[in-house]
Amino acid sequence: MAEVIDGKSVAEDVVRTVKALTSELVANGKAKPGLAVVIVGEDPASQVYVASKSRTAKECGFHSLQHTLPAETSEEALLKIIGDLNADPAINGILVQLPLPAHIDAGKIIQTIAPEKDVDGFHFINVGKLGTGELETAFVPCTPAGSMLLIERVRGKDLSGLNAVVVGRSNIVGKPMANLLLAANCTVTIAHSRTKDLPALARTADILVAAVGRPEMIKGDWVKPGATVIDVGINRIPAPEKGEGKSRLVGDVAYAEAARQAGAITPVPGGVGPMTIAMLMANTLASAYLAAGLKRPSF
Ligand code: NAP
After folding, report:
1. 88 lies in the same domain as 171
2. How far apart are CA 83 and CA 88, in angstroms?
């Protein structure tokens, strides 16, 4: 059976380190890192995420600010808030929780965030830096950054010679994940909905990353024996066995069968999920270091 990669424990490690480095920064007379989280509307899932981000920021010792805005907030008003946060020296990271209401152009909002405060890593400048290998100053999207840390825990930092297959090509997960693996010297293939014979391609992967959004699509016999399997998917499916109307979370990988083939595998929940918030904290700390003229810490 595969080693189970404990994302919860790695995420706790990251948060612990961020907390210690924040104390050190403050002890050296620098300002504490500041994170502003902006949420528009009442989407319950978004409210849970945002509350968790703000709570973890406080736990890290950050200056934590939250703007909770009504769904009818205008694009203009939101742009003004972003502009003010861009200009605020106490803020190092700005996160706008997605999705935004339909009347607001999310792309425009994201591109208005100052690149050096774009701790979600979605601004074109940060996308370009990752694509060109400028990793010293790039902000990398939190979910692929966290996935990469989990891969490194199993395989080390230099992945020379390994074949990686990333299933999914979104701007938030698939593409940045592929760029990170390339930067670590993997031979990378990106698969998507038009890929032919995905099972055969997946079987070539020493590192297989699933970021699809389809419950348990990747079967055990798609996994090369000994492969490292990173399951980014979070899918809620009905679980009548738990009672009427109940549901449970599963990944994009059929976990039980894949675990019989893989060398190491992330569970869902408890794998990649907890890493996302931890890496948001790491990115905000990195932004504060860079703003203070210091070399960013590595994780
Ligand atoms: P997305 O934007 O919907 O992208 C899904 C990708 O999967 C697309 O590139 C799509 O291909 C590809 N795909 C769809 N069906 C496929 C098939 N049958 N065969 C091969 N590829 C297929 O999703 P996302 O935002 O990247 O998220 C992916 C999953 O990760 C979701 O379950 C999401 O909930 C989860 N997620 C988790 C976290 C976390 O914190 N752990 C964060 C973000 C996302 P095309 O491009 O050809 O359409």
Report:
1. no
2. 9
Decide if 120 is catalytic. Answer: yes
CATH of the domain at 223: 3.40.50.720
- Domain limits at 107? 29-114
Give the amino acid at 120: D
Residue in 48, 170, 253 to alter for ligand 1 test, most ligand atoms within 8 A of Cβ: 170
User: What does the pLDDT look like over 43-99, one tens digit per residue?
Assistant: 999 999 999 999 999 999 999 999 999 999 999 999 999 999 999 999 999 999 999
- Coil, strand or helix: which one is 81? helix
83: domain CATH number? 3.40.50.10860
Rounded Cα distance between 256 and 5, Å, is: 14
**Ligand 1 centroid – CA 226 distance (Å):** 24
Q: Is 155 in the pocket of ligand 1 (CB under 6 A)?
A: no
Residue nearest to atom 31 of ligand 1 (CA): 213
Number of folded domains that form the chain: 2
pTM: 0.97
Contact indicator for 121, 109 with CB cutoff of 8 Å? no
**CA pair distance 192, 210, nearest whole angstrom:** 10
Residue with tokens 């009905």: 238
* 30 is annotated as an active-site residue: no
Q: What are phi and psi of 147, to 5 degrees?
A: -60, -40
> Do 175 and 84 lie in a common domain?
no
77 plus 147 within the same structural domain: no
